[in-house]
Design goal:
four-stranded parallel β-sheet; alpha/beta; single chain; pentosyltransferase activity; about 325 residues; 2 domains; about 15% strand; five-stranded parallel β-sheet; glycoprotein; Rossmann fold
Length: about 325
């Protein structure tokens, strides 16, 4: 918690002599709208953690106020704030305030009421504690669709051969990074997918959230390696299919970070667990190395660089082909 600033709540009489004067910016705060103080610290720079640790809970906390809420951000870099500007605007009609900055006039921000912290987190990833709120992850997805003006509400529904009157082509989005956690045989995967009838787009979903949202929303099927952009499944249309390619030794993370959360998101989930020979680790370590024989023996600071950050995948397209066929079958349902 070293990256989280501590705030102190003090109770003082309204006429206390040491009570600071309200800022000249009070003109923006002179209504009855409350303020919400929340932190962007810790792991907000990580796309997945931005959603699971902050943005989902922010939606749950702020949504009931119907944009009549001042957002007070602490521990936030200006680039982080700018990155999700669309979301702030969808949750508040007011300009986001960096509460860590000292006012030029030395005075204080004044509000009728301040809410401290976010709610709705239940300890699970990309999920909402429905015992605390009326909102669900489906509501969060609908909110994102509205905020980012995403037009596609549902994935394509393929017809059977007997029912076909028009040719419908499912869109497959392959998330492929250039440096780490990447597919080393992307062209081979694309060729196989096109042979099955997919229209294929290959891209690295980057820090441009609006662009990533649009690309994901257009897809009927989205596939990627664990930790390489699958968080964008929050933008997929209803009944789309997400395929998680699970690298060697990261099964638990794959299940808890994306497998289980997908159940609450109106998407169908498939996963493909690679074999050892499909991992780039086989070129770095001998077959009898502890990297293969006992991955659980590593501490996190050792485990993460080996398995999470620097493991690429050479997909066995023959073995993977049935997964793409199953995705097509799901699009018929």
């Amino acid at each position: 918690m070293g990256q989280i600033r501590e705030w102190t709540v003090k109770m003082v009489p309204a006429d206390h002599q040491d009570l600071p004067l309200c800022s000249s910016r009070r003109v923006h705060h002179d209504d009855s709208s409350p303020a919400l103080l929340f932190s962007l610290g810790a792991y907000f720079g990580n796309y997945f953690h931005a959603f699971t640790d902050v943005l989902v809970s922010l939606f749950v906390t702020a949504r009931p106020f119907d944009r009549g809420l001042h957002l007070l951000v602490t521990d936030g870099h200006h680039l982080q704030v700018a990155k999700f500007a669309t979301m702030w605007q969808a949750l508040s009609r007011y300009e986001v305030i960096d509460i860590d900055k000292v006012q030029p006039d030395g005075k204080a921000h004044c509000f009728s009421r301040v809410i401290l912290g976010l709610k709705g987190r239940d300890g699970k990833e990309l999920s909402i504690n429905t015992s605390e709120t009326q909102y669900t992850m489906k509501d969060f997805k609908h909110f994102l669709r509205s905020a980012y003006s995403l037009n596609k509400t549902a994935a394509i529904k393929l017809q059977t051969e007997d029912d076909k009157t028009t040719t419908l082509v499912p869109r497959l989005l392959i998330i492929s990074r250039e440096k780490t956690r990447t597919f080393t045989n992307t062209e081979e995967i694309v060729t196989m997918a096109r042979e099955l009838g997919y229209q294929v787009t290959v891209t690295e979903l980057d820090s441009n959230v609006s662009r990533s949202a649009r690309l994901a929303n257009r897809a009927d099927v989205m596939m990627g390696i664990h930790g390489a952009g699958l968080t964008n499944m929050v933008f997929l249309p209803e009944d789309a299919v997400v395929i998680q390619v699970v690298p060697f030794a990261v099964d638990w993370f794959a299940t808890n970070y994306f497998g289980e959360p997908s159940k609450g998101m109106e998407v169908r989930y498939l996963e493909y667990k690679i074999e050892r020979e499909e991992s780039s680790l086989v070129k770095q370590y001998p077959p009898d190395d502890v990297v293969f024989t006992d991955p659980s023996s590593f501490r996190w600071e050792e485990f993460s660089p080996i398995y999470m950050l620097n493991q690429n995948v050479t997909l066995n397209v023959t073995r993977f082909r049935p997964v793409l066929l199953e995705a097509l079958e799901l699009l018929h349902q």
